[in-house]
## 1
Amino acid sequence: MEAAVWVIILPLLTAFFIGISKVYVKKIFVPLVISSAIIYLYLLILVINNSYPPNVYSVGAWRLIGINLMVDPFSGLFLLIIALLFLPVIIFSVKYIKSYKHEYFIFTYIMTAGIAGMVLTADLFNLYVFLEVSSLSSCALVALKKTNKGLEGAYKYLVMSTLGSFFILLATILTYYLTGTLNIAEISLEFNEIPFKIKSALMAFFVFGYVLKIGLIPLHFWLPDTYEDSPIPYNVLSSGLVMKSAVYALIKVLYIIFGIDFLDKSGLLQIGVFWGVITFIVAHLLAFQQSNLSRLLAYSSIAQIAYIMIGLFVGTEGGLIGGNFHILNHAIMKGTLFLVTAIFYYSLSAVNIEDIKGLAYKFPILSFTFVVASLAIVGLPPFNGFISKWLIVEAALESGFVYAAFFILVGTFLSLTYYLKVIITLYTKNDKEIVVEEPGLSLSLPTIFLGSLCIVFGVVPSLPLRLINKIPTFLLDNGEYIRVLLGG
Amino acid sequence: MNRINVISKKLYKIGLVVSLAIFLLFIFYDIHNLESNSKRYLSDHYISEGVQETGAINIVTSVLYDYRAFDTLGEATVLLTAAAILSFLVPITKDKMRGTPFTIIVSQTTQVFIPFLAILGMYLIFFGHLAPGGGFVGGVVIALIPILLTITYRVEFSEYKFKPDKKKVSEDIGAIGFVLIGLLGILTGSNFLANGQANVSLGDAGELISAGLIPYLNIMIGIKVGAGLAIIFNSLIKEK
Amino acid sequence: MQISYIAVIILFCLGIYTIISNKNIIKMVMGFTILESSLILLLILISYTPGGTAPILDRQYEIVVDPIPQALALTTIVIGGSVTAVMLAVTIKLYKRYRTLNVDKLRKLRG
Amino acid sequence: MIDLIFNMLMIFLLITAFFMVFTKDILTSVITLPIFGAILVVIFVILQAPGPAIAEAVIASGLTTFFFVITINKTEYEQNE
């Protein structure tokens, strides 16, 4: 299917043309950015629509000896997240970003191309290359504002993600040495003969490499620093996409190459759920003490990613559906929260929670969106967060992780406390007059669009669930995925 | 008290690394003697049909630029991102490389040296599919010319000879050229980056003009890497 | 040929030790270079078959060395080189801001 | 014969790596980096891998050492002055 390659090439071409437009044709910069984002949205919808019978696109027409791109419902979900988040963020940052405009858009487009490449490719080394592309460009975005904290966050992010990449590279090399091929389907076929000890060692390297990038508890300390001083629209893409593409790659490698029964036998499912439970408890507690708004949202992102890990590591069909639905919901909810924080920062450079005291009376609609998104992320009934969390709790109970279900409910109240703290400061009366720079329509429209999605997906969950219900068929038993990739 | 703390911290780290080493040793030992039926069907295919399918003598280049050309596209993007990061980290004020002022001998030899570097770089790029080398290595050798100028004649002269904007634009043109040659595959009805499969005239192997699109991909990557590394080097020098 | 695999393991763990335990940032980046070189050495060791010839097939050879890991090694060298360049650039900026190359001081300075 | 040279090179590689890591002065450890790279290039040539050998020689032991020297130039000199 032709559009699968265009999803990766179009952002790259736009990034290169922006590079040229910096020097020669200066004035076509904004129309180029907006038009390519709109074309990209149309392309993504085209690919998502025919993602159900998964189709394979082999780059260079080398059927199985070259690199193949595969569009299946799981990657279709991620393309849906890119489609939902990318256009609002681009429209938002055209007005929001003042310094280094050209570099910001070059890096955003290259990062999106890297994530789309990671999500679509069915080749292990290609997955590593696109992982490197997306993490290097997102590290550049962290350092964009060149403040002291920003540069330090970028340095920590670079060190940690390169260390993770080297472990993934070591595992890829050993997989090639054992199986002789790099195509994911052929590797999983060859992996059946490999003894248990070596297979679990390889799995350990993969898990360690990807967990370093996702940032579960013992390895999370670098993450909040990258959120502190980076341009806030980038935080939307980072927490919505960059961390999740590492989760995607981990799940694809584990479920397709190692297979669900090997995961169960080696006990990784129990470890994963346990690790997730610890992560979100500690993350919630840490989030409680934060005064900086971005750091608070960063810790809450770590907690939400832990919910997703629990959902995906439960290993049943319900768990997969719940986990994937929570990936979609978290991307939208966190996106809204970060966009509202960006508007507060844009209008009166508010960074800490105290600075946004009494802003509700100045921005009634935006504060309402903030309240909706934070209630959704906590998981209260009418909103989308509740449904996905409920699916995860149900799946955890079904497959016997009673302690995980119990702690998720405890975690809900923990997160309720620190979000309420923010909402209360938002709505407390503030006597002193605040000089406010009015955010234009181009800033508030994307925020309201994402905020309304919180409600729409909450009230009508069948809209995204139509796509998400098809995911487990190609993930749980990897035979289906392999048949399509090899047969084709 | 502090000394014990420092020693215990150091021992903890050494213990961690030694345990990782032992773990790796067992794994490598197992993998090495497990390797009974060394499955190399993919590389045997590349070796046996490589020359006919892609026309390139150097199988590594045919793997890099035809079988797995998508990797090279991703890798060229990594290089472009690194060049863009370094070019925007640089403050406006220039700072010359502090060091000993070079004597006349150095500046004379660089003038003699530059044509040889240019020829070597061109050779590595154009003969990428016949001899070891290729776009990346040739590009780096060509990037050595502005680097030598920067060292011997200060940054201003090198910037005067190779304008920074020109370098940025030539880097982007190289990248866009690579993608457009890939799109050529789509125009001729086959898939993206299709060289061997698309009915592109492969010429007979061993000639200079052979191997279909691989030489052009090599040239594009050569331009891109040359300009990119010149930007990387000059911005590292200029960082005050 | 066994020593080569042992050398790869030693270099890998040496690289990780340098990254973990060093105070100076430049030494830490040097640890990454060592780590990357050990992985490239592992790739080339995997590609070598005893008695094989280099993958330049100007005429038919009977045993040829495996070309795929060599292509992967080329890609890894370029990626590792550019990541090291970015790390060093950020190190210079950090040094200009904080006037110190000591990793621990940086963590405390952030406050 | 080749195996003897190969094993000796491997040992020499390890010695250079250990020396590079455990010297106190940064400048000497940066100087040993190209030696480390050069030995790797010879090992790659013995292992019949000309492509990565050139790339390693030019990029990994050539340019990366240059970047290290510039970084030291920018950071070390101020401390001495």
Note: Chain B has eight helices and no strands.
## 2
Amino acid sequence: MYAIRIHGRGGQGTVTLAQLLAQAGHEEGIWTQATPSFGVERRGAPVEAYVRYSDEKITERSHVEQPDCVIVQDTSLLEYVDVTEGLEDDGILLVNTDADPAAVDVDTDADVITVDATEIALENLGRPIMNTALLGAFAGATDKLSTGSLESVITRKFAGEVGRKNVAATTDAYTEVHA
Amino acid sequence: MSSDPQEQDYTDRLEHDDELWNPGHRACAGCGPALAMKYITEAAGENTIVTNATGCMEVVSTPYPESAWGTSYIHNIFENAASVAAGIEAAYKSFDRRDPDHLDVQDSDDLNIIAIGGDGATADIGFRALSGMMERGHDVLYIMYDNEAYMNTGVQRSSQTPFGAETTTSPAGKESIGNDTNKKDMASIAADHGVPYVATATISNPRDFKQKVEKALEIDGPKFIHVYAPCPVGWGFDSAKTIDLAEKAVETGLFPVFEMEDGEITSVNKIRDREPIEEWLEPQGRFRHLFKDEENGEEAIEELQGWIDGRAEDLGLDA
Amino acid sequence: MARADQQHPSDEQEVMKGTSAVAKGVMAADPDVVSAYPITPQTGVVEKLSELVADGKLDSEFIKVDSEFNAASTCIGASAAGARAFSATSSQGLKLMSEPLFTAAGMRLPIVMAVANRSLSAPLSIWADHTDAFAERDGGMLQFHAEDVQEAIDHVLLGFRVAEQVNLPALSNFDGFILTHVQEPANIPDETEVSEFLPPRDPEYTLDPSDPKTMGAYARPEHWTESRYEIQRAMMDAREVWADAVEEFRDVFGRDYTEYGGMLDTYHAEDADHIVVAMGSIAGTVRNVVDAYREDGETVGMVRPRVFRPFPAPELRDALADAESVAVLTKEMSPGYESAFAGEIKGALYHAESRPPIKSYVLGMAGRDVKPEDIAEIVEDVKTATPRMGFKESESWPQLRPELLEGGDDR
Amino acid sequence: MSDTQDPYENLKITTGVVAEPNTSRTNETGSWREYKPVVDPDTCIGCGQCETYCPDQAAKPVEGEDFYAFDLDYCKGCGICADVCPTDAIEMVREVK
């Protein structure tokens, strides 16, 4: 079992990112599950979503408490949310920021990886919607998802030109992190 | 044939047609709503599905296994006759389009779907269902028979109970003149929903009522008819006077008869020399207290008369 | 044992939100009329069905009603007219439907509904538990509980098949958020398969004016008892109809729900000394706990009622016969007594030759997360259960936080 | 129940308690009556007002005659017919049973 926890804010597409991660995992032929942790909160409130990957059918329904990977969509959350709670020492903390990993203010033994997904999104899409870039960064950092799987789920979700631009954002982030 | 009235019996020489509202129903002697059911079925004919709310006309017509109804008929609960009708209409629309040959049903265009409820079932507890049905535009004729209280449960006050009337939940007493509200204007509320055809009618003028039912059934979409139907038991009058009291309600202006099409009043049955409301109040037991307590009674009658006069002016009722 | 069936997800599966997947299952059942009202966490079902209608993929009359009350009421009219009718709801919405739903059972109208299980106010909570479904227990509606999204889809199809055969409405339960909002792989049945499994509805009576009937007559005391008994008989008949349906379902769709005639699903229960009984999505987490015990050589197992009404009493008597102890995990509570689920299981075993001690554990209420450790602690606790324990000891609220209670939990 | 035999004692319950149409006629409500309408055939002009306003469909034209009379199997004796009759051809008389 490989578990991912995503931290974001309502309106940032946390659920979409979880969905794309699950669908891309499915493309790889593994069992996947994405569970948003919903509240009645509205846009802007901190939210979480969980993704699980497994070689066996996933029946677990509890929240992810010991993630192998934590994705942080917005560094302003670091002040309020203990994003590294339960994160495995050999895990990954993937943070959307223009800062260097060393500059990210967290206390963890896990590998901290940063990517400026918002900038990549602005360059490719002209809008700061960073989920497809974060998807690419996750793939680049973990080698769990192939670029082919990413392209296939993104073009299925976004038609035409929007799809192509999102694939480009994914690829840019993948390349940046993978290198 | 004997000349002794006790012996007179022509029963064997009378013939019943195929009535769609059948004798043997268990309504009280002189029941106004039972007449409304008779007129509705006569006007609508057999190609009709009736949905009925819980209430007098439901219990008197369908103690299992008996049914007074000759049309297709369904009763569900107190407050959803309009919704049940809406569901039937949706089903037939679906059958039309999808042609489920296994059901062998007819074209919905020829079908009359009529929802019937008393004043409580319609204006009070079933108001949400009625509002939804009308607002969504279902091809359903809703008929509210108004006997001005919850008669099925023993004469409790509804939003159609007139001012000053005594019911078991609006009793007259030292601190009470009886019911302290005027009748809720259901016709206007229906018209405000964008219902293309709204009418009021009474059982004292069956020709007018049946014409309105027929006219309504010709129109696509929701329709609403408020039919006035006195209750001798609940109102406390001689059962022979049912028609008479319905007529007096019209003549005093308590119950104006009119039509509204696309939100506008298109016809009003004008009243020449509108009678004072006392003419209608006096024969009824539920208003007896108004004539005993001179001071408060007079005041209440004045208030009711004022309300009637106001409505009459709004509607242009006086000829 | 569901998990051993498939080692790899199939290409035919789609990763889709639970509510969307259920809506697509409904589409395959091809209802004539859909009438529903939005409520969290069911809303996704209504939205997806609306979208399918808007895109011309689902040819149903979709009534955008004013309330759940009238969702149920319009379905009653449609079903009485002979239509296949579907609705979906949750929690307060199910309560608002309660009055018409009881009549749908009495009038023997096979309306099928997806219920996204959620707690009931007050206090308001949008999260999952089973209070809503249990509150409708006595209505005469068939009730099934899904463990995962696939079952939530399949139970709707099985629901139509069985409901229309025994003439009773059906509630297909799936846990709010946990299953409504999860994205996981599931097979979406296609219409050809479904038409093979689910014949068009063929009602005995309809509101066809060419053959008029009177529906919804009132029954005097001389007849009412018999009409209620007929619901009971139809429920009992449903056991066999369900058993046939799951077999045919397996033949058509390849998914096997035939264990215990489709009434129960078990996991390592056969030789288990300690059995956890649970319904709905929590069973998935229980499986993992069972696995961990088995790795340590401990004989722990799970029994999951798939069908709640009709109640699988004979099956439970059999499945629990050899257990040393039974832990009932339940997400509902009948204040003033105990969990209705546990009470019913105890009742089912009262006449059994073997009566293991049964403890009930109220947990996972209103979305409180249930971790594998919580369940392991319960297993450890139930091991100490004895046949002579008293009623008070037989009930436990393992997730209760006494420190939050005014004056503490010192009573 | 009264001492009359329940005609439905052995009735079978249909699925969903569905009843057949037009079956209320087995219930003869004439037994409810205290006053009985008596028509004077000579005064009756055959206008049919009594039929129009009878809530129990008990007022009918007499076969082969030009006046109306009453189906005593169903007439509940409300007196509406007498009240609406334009020629006062109907009298309500206390029924001696």
Note: The two ends of chain C are 42 Å apart (CA to CA).
## 3
Amino acid sequence: MSRLAMELPGLQLKNPIMPASGCFGFGKEFGGLYDLSQLGAIMIKATTEETRYGNPTPRVAETASGMLNAIGLQNPGLEKVMAEELPWLERYDVPIIANVAGSETADYVAVAKAISTAPNVHALELNISCPNVKCGGIQFGTDPDTARELTAAVKEVSSVPVYVKLSPNVTSIVDMAKAVEAGGADGITMINTLIGMRLDAKTGRPIIANRTGGLSGPAVKPVAIRMVAEVSQATNLPIIGMGGVTNAQDVVDFLSVGASAVAVGTANFVDPFVCPNIINSLEEKLDELGVDHISELIGRSHRL
Amino acid sequence: MSRLAMELPGLQLKNPIMPASGCFGFGKEFGGLYDLSQLGAIMIKATTEETRYGNPTPRVAETASGMLNAIGLQNPGLEKVMAEELPWLERYDVPIIANVAGSETADYVAVAKAISTAPNVHALELNISCPNVKCGGIQFGTDPDTARELTAAVKEVSSVPVYVKLSPNVTSIVDMAKAVEAGGADGITMINTLIGMRLDAKTGRPIIANRTGGLSGPAVKPVAIRMVAEVSQATNLPIIGMGGVTNAQDVVDFLSVGASAVAVGTANFVDPFVCPNIINSLEEKLDELGVDHISELIGRSHRL
Amino acid sequence: MIIQDRMEIVEHKQIARAIFELTLRGKLTGEITSPGQFVHVRVSDSFDPLLRRPISIAKVDRDKQEITLLYRADGHGTGVLSKRITGDTVDVLGPLGNGFPIEATEAGETAYLIGGGIGVPPLYELSRQLTAKGVKCVHILGFESEDVVFYQEQFAALGDTHIATVDGTEGTKGFVTHVMDKLPTDFATFYTCGPMPMLKAVQQAYADKKGYVSFEERMGCGIGACFACVCETKDQSERSYVKICSDGPVFEAGVVSI
Amino acid sequence: MIIQDRMEIVEHKQIARAIFELTLRGKLTGEITSPGQFVHVRVSDSFDPLLRRPISIAKVDRDKQEITLLYRADGHGTGVLSKRITGDTVDVLGPLGNGFPIEATEAGETAYLIGGGIGVPPLYELSRQLTAKGVKCVHILGFESEDVVFYQEQFAALGDTHIATVDGTEGTKGFVTHVMDKLPTDFATFYTCGPMPMLKAVQQAYADKKGYVSFEERMGCGIGACFACVCETKDQSERSYVKICSDGPVFEAGVVSI
Ligand SMILES: Cc1cc2nc3c(=O)[nH]c(=O)nc-3n(C[C@H](O)[C@H](O)[C@H](O)COP(=O)(O)OP(=O)(O)OC[C@H]3O[C@@H](n4cnc5c(N)ncnc54)[C@H](O)[C@@H]3O)c2cc1C
Ligand SMILES: Cc1cc2nc3c(=O)[nH]c(=O)nc-3n(C[C@H](O)[C@H](O)[C@H](O)COP(=O)(O)OP(=O)(O)OC[C@H]3O[C@@H](n4cnc5c(N)ncnc54)[C@H](O)[C@@H]3O)c2cc1C
Ligand SMILES: Cc1cc2nc3c(=O)[nH]c(=O)nc-3n(C[C@H](O)[C@H](O)[C@H](O)COP(=O)(O)O)c2cc1C
Ligand SMILES: Cc1cc2nc3c(=O)[nH]c(=O)nc-3n(C[C@H](O)[C@H](O)[C@H](O)COP(=O)(O)O)c2cc1C
Ligand code: FES
Ligand code: FES
């Protein structure tokens, strides 16, 4: 077995690196830049039942070592994703994790049921944490009971394992993690973005038309690392960690605090080749650390 | 009246700029660098009833556009602060805001009662949000009921107005703000640090001996701005805003989302002259913005 | 093809107040297909600033493998960029987007190239290619004031060049539309790039003409993946949209709703 | 007095693997009072990296108003610093802390100066001042390997200089203690700076000698205000502590608990 291969519920990963949802579209643009079969997996853009246009622009604003976004779940809708985007991705030898979003349980269930039957969708990522839409699931992301129930409802209809994506905008992320574990989640992905705002110096108004947006990038990495460390010690679920990953050292850090794989979001905008670059530098990193297989890193900071 | 003067409960500020608690000690070191009477106010280091040694070192770690700290409320204790630190500060014409910390209600009450009688202490800042001590008030900072009760207990004994310092590590900062308002708070200071962690690349262990620390600096400014915007629209209390302030534009931003004054923390380490530098550049900033008095900026982003 | 190139700074100088001319050398040059395409520049290797900056390609020299960027350093990222020195290398992603169609104007016809402020740069390469093909180019360029006017000689060398400044310190006082009002309308095509109000006014004034408009929007990825830069199209049948970065930045006049 | 000075880079060059020699000019030089003081350097004007870096003053030239820093560029901040070029200015805060007491050794007496790795730099200015005063300096300097040894000629010009390298590629194989074992103990004072295990070993070996030890700790402010850099003192009566940045970095041997 390769030194980088990793097995997670539903996922046989060549390596534990995958682009994060919303930062990679449905892969087409990056497919023009490199062979997507190199990736461990792909987390595709949030899919809702109906077509969504999303928020007015500006939708992004830069901040110190980070950025805000309020795209607003723009996506072509379940039908088109099933008919066009997923089939296109079949040309690559890479498992797809479908990010499922909605406004109420019924939406989530409908999308989960359908999309989980696509041949290349090997897992779902339940997006209960998108801060950028009025009715976009944030209520599911902050109340443990609601989260547990939604997880259970989706689990019931899904043909593939279900990962739940947690929001960092909560008092206790451990409570949320335990709730979705109780609801039957197969894994956790974390963290989604922190809610933030930036004003335009010239006008005094928020830059982002939606006023607030989700903060991502290197700025949030310390918060993400802390939360993954907490959750990995409080639940038995495998974690796909994310938040500010830009290089192989960041991957080592997320694994060290207990993640089993790592997603890369914002860094794809800074360097579109970041995912293959990280993958190519991982073995050297393992040599440096004197580690045979990457899975040995998982949780090592708790043992030290 | 000067274009920068601002009046808040208990505080006649020459200007709305003050160093944040824990980032300025008790003023002595900075007093060797410039005349502290230039400052709007000084928020002194957290004071507890007894002497505290604090956490083991390392106590700080740098992060992208920010830093983590886990000092652990090291301070000489109430008696010495009253006998030595506060009297020393009397040589300056500057109101002191005393940051009060403790482990349980009785401690807080004892410190608040005593320290509020010091002649130069014009307000208290109730630190219910320090993330770096096991019994350091974080429970008071995340539960609205506990926060309300503590606020009421401290209000009862304090001879000066009481500001409560809110933690950003909560699902709803508005709920916390409303709770302390209901408890009788005279104002709010926000935000304290976000809990984070950084690993040492060489050892794989957390750099900070306390494992987690509080994230501050420019990285957190978008979160702070968003939270001040929310709280200022949900309560009637004046807000002293902070989180990543490094220059006059940051001050304008915090006032624009509803703060009445601004505290500067981490930036004092990057540039020890940052407070007087900001103060000296504020009038020019007002000219640029075509504003007569700085108070006109308060909440302008809500009106735009 | 879009490539990531560590381009060498061949020359970097200030040419007007806060306006810089940056010449870069690298193989990315060979990938450029039309005037009006842009590059996404990482101004430093640090996380502050984090995101790339979109800058139009103002001139292409295929023989030397060089491109020229003209940009205004007034923000954080462009400020950092302006301090980079000759010999240094810069991480550039590009070429991005679809530029102006030179084939839309025939040799012998007249084209109006209307630019405002930092919308002027892409029109320079456009004019070079149009004039080389035998199109008569008329340049109408608007600026705030005389001290931020740039490249007027370069444009003048290619064709009639009219300058408007808001404060009247150079050329016509006012906007490009004040110049347009006095010019004949017997041209074939217009090409425009600049601030939104200008684009609107130009599109309105020449509503019956064939025209091409280059847009700006805040960007994340620059390659069409993040949906940061979408604009609604005029065709509102099913709320359709375009991405400025990958569908644009240049669109036929009337397509994007402004 | 501590001042903030925008110092000019007079010279900047690599002198060993990842080791740089940086000469800065500015009025801060006039404020330095003792060898072993340090400066707090802001390596760039961006927020990444955010904090200053503490670096010892390795040499002071009052006439030229110049100081020399010797540093290892292996982390993020020192990496950025290493790319700054001559003519640029750097934001430096200092001088900070209390250095080595040269008055602790009389003219004619012998002092052992024991340094390890990036603890070596402050010993150079110390040796210059001690030898100028007539003290006989013996230098015992430990490094990882031959390719990171620096300033051995400069030290040799001031007095006996013994090098130890962990891998034996230069001088004695092993640690400074291996050199110390073979040297007479008839010296008056020792001064030491280096990694904690080395400081411990030196303090133990010379427990009966008068000595001064320079410590390192991660810093926030560098001026004594943030309590990031505290160390417990040996005197545990009431858990007393010192701040490395403002009470130190140099303490009499035995004061700080290690
Ligand atoms: C397709 C295209 C071509 C462009 N060509 C040029 C050119 O040739 N010359 C030139 O000077 N400028 C050009 N611009 C505008 C230029 O991208 C912005 O002025 C620049 O990004 C501002 O960055 P800053 O560091 O100065 O400001 P900051 O305030 O630091 O920028 C913060 C963030 O906002 C974004 N941003 C701010 N203003 C704009 C804007 N007007 N458009 C898009 N993003 C913005 C930045 O990219 C960055 O992400 C172009 C923009 C686009 C979209
Ligand atoms: C009083 C004093 C004098 C020093 N003198 C020298 C010198 O003359 N030459 C030299 O090469 N080094 C010296 N050091 C060590 C030097 O400060 C660190 O190597 C440097 O700060 C590491 O920064 P970085 O950007 O390379 O690493 P990063 O990993 O980017 O550093 C991250 C953060 O950790 C801090 N940090 C990391 N390692 C250390 C350390 N060993 N000590 C203190 N802070 C650290 C940094 O200051 C920064 O805040 C001295 C340290 C102190 C406290
Ligand atoms: C532009 C943008 C769009 C995003 N869209 C989604 C989304 O549709 N669904 C989702 O679950 N997360 C979305 N995210 C969050 C990311 O998947 C990721 O959780 C977050 O950005 C933190 O990782 P990073 O710091 O590496 O970007 C988006 C993030 C960005 C920056
Ligand atoms: C080293 C350090 C020590 C701090 N100590 C305290 C403290 O004792 N009491 C307190 O209420 N806040 C403390 N804080 C939090 C700051 O007062 C401030 O709320 C926070 O740092 C955000 O502001 P900044 O980004 O400007 O630093 C501390 C912050 C730092 C960096
Ligand atoms: S900037 Fe990402 S889609 Fe256009
Ligand atoms: S670094 Fe702040 S007290 Fe020493």
Note: The domain at 3-96 of chain C is CATH 2.40.30.10 (Elongation Factor Tu (Ef-tu); domain 3).
